[in-house]
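> call design_seq(struct)
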């Protein structure tokens, strides 16, 4: 099993409140030994600070790696909506339009999470849904800055 948190050093989740960062760091450490505790710590952080995007990342990542794909999808979709809200974008990613420059902050997180959803759909054996997302990412991120080209290569290998 791949460990999504294989680094021994603290993970830089960005500018988070100290208490939220501490919960995420504890969750990362717990994941190696006690995945239920890790999930609980991440969910505690989410309940305390639902606007902090790295929390969604932690949750959808652990659930994807554990094969809890429906849960990973639900969390990624929630994080995607929160990121879109923060970026001032439509909550439906199908309505997003390319911007002159690749966005930073919440917009970049939204694109990264959209890529994660494509991967989750591939793992769920839903290649049509993954392809719909990839087609959008080709327009929104033509340089592949958020790494969607890796997911596209996986999709092509499956086809």
């Amino acid at each position: 099993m791949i460990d999504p948190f294989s680094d021994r050093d603290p993970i830089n989740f960005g500018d988070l409140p100290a208490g939220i960062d501490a919960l995420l760091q504890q969750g990362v450490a717990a994941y190696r030994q006690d995945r239920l505790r890790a999930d609980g710590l991440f969910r505690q952080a989410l309940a305390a600070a639902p606007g902090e995007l790295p929390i969604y990342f932690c949750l959808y990542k652990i659930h994807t790696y554990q094969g809890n794909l429906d849960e990973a999808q639900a969390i990624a979709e929630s994080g995607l909506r929160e990121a879109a809200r923060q970026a001032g974008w439509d909550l439906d990613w199908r309505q997003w339009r390319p911007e002159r420059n690749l966005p930073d902050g919440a917009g970049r997180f939204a694109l990264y999470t959209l890529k994660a959803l494509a991967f989750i759909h591939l793992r769920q054996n839903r290649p049509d849904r993954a392809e719909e997302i990839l087609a959008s990412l080709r327009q929104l991120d033509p340089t592949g800055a958020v790494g969607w080209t890796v997911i596209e290569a996986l999709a092509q290998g499956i086809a």
